[in-house]
Amino acid sequence: MKQRNSLIEGSIFKSLLALSLPIIFANLLQTAYQLTDTFWVGRLGTVAVAAVSISFPIIFLIISLGGGLAMAGTILVAQYKGKKNQRAVDHLTSQTMLLVVIVSIVLSALGYVLSPFLISLMGADTNVFVPAVQYMKISFIGMVFMFVFMVFQSLMRGVGNVNVPLYVVLGTVLLNLVLDPLFIFGYGVIPAYGVAGAALATIGTQGIAAIIGIIILSRGNYQIKLHWSDLKPDYVLIKKMFKLGLPASIEQSTRALGMTIMTFLVATFGTVTLAAYGIGGRMLSFVIIPALGLSMATSTLVGQNMGAGKIKRAENIAKLSTLAGFIFLSIVGVLFFFFAAQLATLFIPGELEVIQSSTLFIQIMALSFGFIGIQMALNGAFRGSGNTLISMVLSIISLWVLQFPLAYILSFHTSLAEVGLWIAFPVANVLAAGIALAWFAKGTWKQKKITEEIKLEDAATAETLIEEGP
């Protein structure tokens, strides 16, 4: 008896909720790595916080370069799951893992070697340079683990299984809560590594998560299986995955590079402003998590329904997701506006100047959070339908046409100074959301048919015949 796929039938709201909540919770736990780092590093002082703050955008940029390939795997797995082609799902799983591991090793090596140059390029103060390079180099050593677990989560999400990755993340984050202060401050025979200790704790727990992910996929108990015999490169499929994943990589890289350039601008105003931006940025990344979870759930739902030929249902999913994202994040924004000072104090107690600056940053951003929800939901719908190019263009417009130019003009060419950096965020959010809504209403995104472009069924069936015999 075939298992019923609840994601392509029944209540859209229930499906959206069933996928979104575990993804949101998993992403909250995943972000706990960074929040825990910031919390404990904050006890070392402003310089330590600045070192982590200036490193994070670059690390995120490198991860984003390979993240699009994982996204391509997710989209294809979701659509072939909707088409009920299990062999294609498994073949894509193995090829996605192979491709992303190779890319992660290359990017890790480049990032490690270029760490001093990249930190210098960011304009870090002399006292921030050494701890920032240490933190970054260690992070790059463990990059392959981050990539493997990212792919595991993405592939499981493609088939609609979001609970198993959540359990894995929960266990490793709890372990990280213990290892972080242990490696940062030392205890007994374990020396105090300072800022570098935060990176050591993170890659250790990420390594465990990656190994668990590989074991789960290899066993194939959750409607998806990693076949080791499929790890031979399928160059036709890889080419198609690059075509689909490259825009997604550029989209994520554009966002990450935007963070990096913004950090460069902020660094010109000194260590206090840089630390304030780091705290505000962490809070923003925390707020985006519900929108990101909704976006990921939307991608899976839209992908499976597009694969099943249910175009109207896919459109209704996108509309409901957009409304939910706007309402929920608007409520979160109001709460953050009123409790901004308390949130800033939590991360760096006693540093009054940094607290004051980061409080202002959070309050200026907060009331535009709902518009971030609109952007993220619609981007999820575009990606799920295979229109990764649309998401890429929208990201470029948001950051490079709107946010960065506004930040530069308002901070360097008006009397606002660093406050101009903060104001650029809400203005760009509102304008970008309007553009995304207009593009969605145009309706051209519904015409994409990626499972017809990629004739994976024939290749997969042929492989099965060869392996199993007549």
Key descriptive features of the protein:
470 residues; mainly alpha; 17 helices; disordered C terminus
Describe the structure concisely for a colleague:
With 470 residues, the protein is mostly helical. The chain contains 17 helices and no strands.
| Helix-residue proportion | over 70%
Please write the string of helix (H) and strand (E) elements.
HHHHHHHHHHHHHHHHH
Radius of gyration, CA atoms, in whole angstroms: 22 Å
The count of strands amounts to 0
Can you tell me about this structure?
This protein is mainly alpha-helical. The chain has one domain (10-460). Helices cover 82% and strands 0% of the residues. It contains 17 helices and no strands. The protein has helices spanning 12-41, 46-82, 86-121, 126-141, 143-158, 163-185, 195-219, 235-267, 271-307, 311-338, 340-347, 352-366, 369-384, 388-412, 418-442, 450-453, 456-468. Helix 1 (12-41) runs antiparallel to helix 9 and helix 13 crosses helix 15 (418-442). The two termini are 24 Å apart. The model is unreliable at 457-470 (pLDDT under 50).
Q: What is the topological layout?
A:
Layout: H1 12-41, H2 46-82, H3 86-121, H4 126-141, H5 143-158, H6 163-185, H7 195-219, H8 235-267, H9 271-307, H10 311-338, H11 340-347, H12 352-366, H13 369-384, H14 388-412, H15 418-442, H16 450-453, H17 456-468
Helix pairs in contact: 1-6, 1-7, 1-9, 2-3, 2-4, 2-5, 2-8, 2-9, 3-4, 3-5, 3-8, 4-7, 5-7, 6-7, 8-14, 9-10, 9-12, 9-13, 10-12, 10-13, 11-12, 12-15, 13-14, 13-15, 14-15
